[in-house]
Amino acid sequence: MKKIAALLLLLLLIISCTSKDDSPNTDDQQMDDPQDNPIQNPFRLVQVILTNIGGDVLIDDIDYNQQNQVINETFSIDDVEQYSGTYFYDEDRLVRANVSTGSEYNYFYTDDVVTSSNRIHPSFQQDFTYTYDNNANLVRTDRFSGGTLDCVTNYEYDENGNSTTHNSSCGSALISRTYNTRLNPRKLLFKDNYDKALFISNNGLISYSYQTDNVEWDYDYSYTYNEDDLVSVKITSENGKIIRTEEYIYEDL
Fold this sequence. Notes:
Blueprint: H1 2-16, E1 43-52, E2 57-64, E3 70-77, E4 80-90, E5 93-99, E6 104-110, E7 113-121, E8 124-132, E9 138-145, E10 148-157, E11 163-168, E12 174-183, H2 192-195, E13 203-211, E14 216-225, E15 231-238, E16 241-252
Antiparallel strand pairs: 1-2, 1-16, 2-3, 3-4, 4-5, 5-6, 6-7, 7-8, 8-9, 9-10, 10-11, 11-12, 12-13, 13-14, 14-15, 15-16
């Protein structure tokens, strides 16, 4: 259950922290004329198998349209769907994402960069605005609930454009991260113009620390790579104990 909750949070982060909307519809998913391929790589990620030590195996199946854009992620256990995310596009830009748990995320752009978004849920709505530095790094997120600013989050980056620390006015946690210099496999999923707002790092995470006044969690990550120098296995350890493995499956374009 802890694993499922964590991966639902991962899906929500991937879907929610980017927002743009150009009144998309389901026809945006499949277009007659090919657009530029948003994936600058001869491979694409099609499946992630996540195994919690002593727990269930959660499988993330990733589907694409003819333009090699991610249109659906389905998370299942023993062939039973647990939840899913569906993505919609206007040409080569992600404009909306729907989560089967009931939330809709819309993404708005300025000069091809996500500058605001919203999350629409049956019981509430949240709006987000994004501020970038001169290197196109997301440095601040403002969150509005019911039209009122209730959370400001600031980010710092390493020389490779990976978010290393962030702190938030709506919580006392200090989050810090370190990375290797290898490709993060989820960089294969989305275009650079919105993966910053989706919090998809350029490189592989090797440590993650979450600290508050009362608690601290430390996570470490190790990797195995295939002959194409892509991640084949990722191992997550919590305070020195292995808690999860992830196997990444690719196919040629």
